[in-house]
Amino acid sequence: MYLLGLGIALLLMKHLEIDPVATWPWWVVLAPFALAAVWWVWADTTGYTKRKAMERMDQKKRDRLEKQRENLGIKTGKRR
Length: 80
Hints:
- By secondary structure, the protein is mainly alpha-helical.
- It has three helices and no strands.
- It has helices at 2-15, 26-46, 48-72.
């Protein structure tokens, strides 16, 4: 997402002819978009995206269970 933001900012600066980006070649300005595409392909093929989504779901589940235990008055501390 950061690469897309950088690409959009560079594209606007090039279009509005703001220095120093106005003098840069187009391939430099468009490079963040290519890097973002490469990142997405890598993340999808390695399972990184799915793994992160599952971690977020697991954390939500743990938080929900913890809140329900607190509401019931059940101790949630680990045994010593």
